[in-house]
Amino acid sequence: MKTYNANNSSFPHFGNWLKSYIKRNKIQNAGLAKKLNRELSTINGYKLRKSIQSSIVWDLSIALEHNIFAELAAQLPTHFSMPDKENKELEELKAKVAQLTSERNLLKEILENRK
Predict the structure, then answer these.
(1) Is the dihedral of CA 66, 64, 59, 8 positive or negative?
(2) Per the domain annotation, does 5 fall within a domain?
(3) Which domain holds residue 21?
(4) Does residue 20 belong to any structural domain of this protein?
């Protein structure tokens, strides 16, 4: 396992992401603050922070009805491991593709032999 070097990280600036999301989805800051039971100044503070506690991300995800964790995770390199459930589903889909490919090839062979 490689050693993590924070200086080389392309860690997304959470505050910039939040500002962009709020603007893109035309969300009222005051409404979001009310939904989270927080002061408007707190919401504005979130938009300035590079990083934020995961419990706050969780609360924002619930309030915005948007899986922020998944969106952030999608920015990680594709070779990173995934949760076991997703790995299992991926393996099942790969097996199904292999089965369908085999069936297709068999059908092609049958049709070619009819000629």
Answers:
(1) positive
(2) no
(3) 10-78
(4) yes
